[in-house]
Amino acid sequence: MMKVKSNSKLSFLSFFILGIPFLSFSQKSYDITFKIAEIYTDTVVIKSYFGNKTIVIDSLKREKDGSFRLKKDNIHEGLGAFTVGNMEIFTFVFDKESKFEINLDDDWNYLVKGCKENDLYFEFQKANKQVRFMESRMKREINQNPKANRDSLNNVYRYEVNKFMSFQDEFYKNYPNNIMTKIVKSMEDPQIPKEYLKNNQIDTSKRLEFIYYFRTHYWDNFDFSDKRLIATPYFFTKQKTYINELTMQSADSIGESIKDFIEKANKSKGFEYSQYMLDYYLQLNAKLPFAYNEERFVEIVDRVVSFERTPWVSPSEISSLQSDADKLRPLLPGKQFVNISEKTLSGKTYNLYDIKKKYTLVYFWSASCESCKINLDQLETFYKKYKNIYDFEIFSIDLDNSLEESIAFQQKHPFDWIVLKSNSSLLKEKYNLDIEMTPDLYLLDKEKRIINHTPLYNQIEETIRSIEEEE
After folding, report:
1. How far apart are CA 37 and CA 3, in angstroms?
2. How far apart are CA 60 and CA 34, in angstroms?
3. Fewer CB in 10 Å around end: N or C, the chain?
């Protein structure tokens, strides 16, 4: 298995602070009765959403009158889901009204008592369901009956669609604060100015300017003052599109996009969205020991975290994050790797900087680490076949705490490359190197500058091949 060292690069403090749930926002107590026909199980589960997570709120047992009752504190306003097993039966709204009743009969006609927000929400869902049902029925009729009058069916379908569109427009106009309206509006893309268009298409000569405009205006229709939207599946979908598709996947661009998002959210006092965005991407990148994740973590800390921009982060937390970033900074691509000088088991000393090759792979491993052995044959094959073609050497350091284990492994499996013996404590003391886990690999260029950092052997091979193919 992958061997984890106790002296992790990123402090436990950061994970503890940033891992605190955000449920301090928009919490309410609810007392909801569900009377649902054609539910024959005696147990149902009520779930809610938060960012990228689906949260189990409670498991409900059937009452004597056949209903199910949810009585629970600390629920975030937003969407809830009534589920049986893995099946979501319907969604509803956790909103201002704390006590209400939802009834659904055999024909799925609804009756909501005590909550106007849910009454309107179900009205919209019912209208939407009817037009979807009509569409499905029309397609089925055409597929099953070649003699069907397609024009007649299309006319009926268009009539239903137009009726729904009119209903939808009136709904949005009359109920601008209903969660259904807010969700739809929040997912709308920004309007494209005419200056970026040519014959109703994006002007290719202005493509880069358009992409920048689209990204910077992507959240214009999102109401950050409405705390319910973070507790729906739609916010995280939009967030992923913003970062993964509209932002260049370089560390500085991602850091800038997150900064822009947080500044826009903060202006509307949407601190919950800002906090979620920061926490999600800090934790995501801090947990992954790859060069591109480490670059992103440092950029986010440098560009985003500050007393002014992230006021919910305490001074001690900011200091801790900056300390974590500073630990990673010397080991980012382009930085000069420290000159390690250690001995083999037989006592011969090797210096990293004495290696005069185009590439050097610094390979931290452990004799008792199972993950270190998984791709070892693949690495040895690549080394024997390409070490002269690609002009590279492997400079490896066994960090196993057991000398006996190291001796036994090397006797059974001698390497063809340099194998030194040390431990994580000595590396920290002598070179200020924190090795979080093994295997841990750094690919260096001729001047011993870092090209890539990864725990995966195949990424080193891919990196070398990619560089060689470009030259």
Report:
1. 53
2. 10
3. C
